[in-house]
Specification:
Blueprint: H1 3-10, H2 22-32, H3 41-48, E1 52-57, E2 60-65, H4 71-85, H5 96-107, H6 112-124
Antiparallel strand pairs: 1-2
């Protein structure tokens, strides 16, 4: 496959994460480009469209995922996050660390959408 040598040449280790295939890693790297152009994780999260945004008024604020940024990249990260928190028939998580973080956020009172958005930002924006 032609993509594999190109991925290895970047030095990114996306394929070490169990839910990321060669094709997905290629899409993420091609969308992000040189990761060093971002001064912080927050800038990268904003570019990817997964930065949290406070929405609301009158003291009733909610933290939602931004709708700005790269739509395709946000969709890829969303499907990776959903895939990483799912469980198999034996109730075993595909990626236990991500699943534990997601469940922790649910226990803190976050909605499923908010917990998933936080999981995307915290776990995938490392």
């Amino acid at each position: 496959m032609l993509v594999t040598p190109l991925l290895e040449g970047t030095g990114y280790q996306l394929q070490t994460i169990p839910v990321i295939s060669t094709a997905t890693a290629g899409r993420i790297i091609s969308a992000v480009g040189n990761i060093n152009r971002f001064k912080s994780e927050k800038q990268l999260a904003k570019f990817c469209g997964v930065a949290p945004v406070d929405v609301g008024s009158g003291g009733k604020n909610k933290e939602l995922c931004s709708k700005g940024g790269n739509r395709e990249l946000r969709a890829d990260l969303y499907f990776l996050a959903v895939g990483s928190i799912t469980v198999d028939k034996n109730d075993k998580a595909r990626h236990p660390i991500f699943r534990d973080y997601y469940l922790k956020k649910l226990m803190e009172g976050k909605t499923k959408t908010q917990a998933l958005a936080l999981e995307i930002e915290q776990q995938w924006m490392l």
